[in-house]
């Protein structure tokens, strides 16, 4: 695709009701100085057609809410997005979303509007968040013309920041689950992985408070410092 064809790309076509819903979505809130426990967090996991950032698509979204220091099971989100038939990638062997499930999914516009209404102005958490953030941002832009501006924190970085003694900095979600002896059920489905990530995050919030990291803003600041140190050249 040339630069000029990209500039001429058509805006998503939303009907009047969808356009109204889009306009009613709340603006994201900045990470503040209220206690960690009082912050509403949305823990999200995506299943995608593959790992190519600019070619593959979001197939399903799973999310749970952490609020008042616990997972709120009354606030859960799961949606499979309807997609046109395409070549199946090996990822279908992991997440199990075959052609029939994808064909029976929700209209992507409505599903993404539902999800952003569920998120509200809350910050997002994910394990390996840069991938989920990119894929979700792209889906929202392509389907809704919406720019995702919510804070998006990476649990895969928060864990080694707060638990350096574990010495498993590059570990995946399964390794951290095993490290803390968490008993989780089904894995590799968006909602199940979001719940497993949320349970891990509850432990990490407790570790944060023990280290006097008491607010979302303080957690983000400490995480930024940790990343800068990790990326700094060693002599």
Automatic annotation (TrEMBL):
Residues 40-210 form the Exonuclease domain. Pfam families: RNase_T. SMART domains: EXOIII (SM00479). It comes from the Bacteria. Keywords: Exonuclease, Hydrolase, Nuclease. SUPFAM superfamilies: Ribonuclease H-like. One of its GO terms (biological process) is DNA metabolic process. The keyword Ribosomal protein does not apply. InterPro entries: Ribonucl_H, RNaseH-like_sf, RNaseH_sf. One of its GO terms (cellular component) is cytosol. GO terms for molecular function: 3'-5' exonuclease activity; nucleic acid binding. This is DNA polymerase III subunit epsilon.
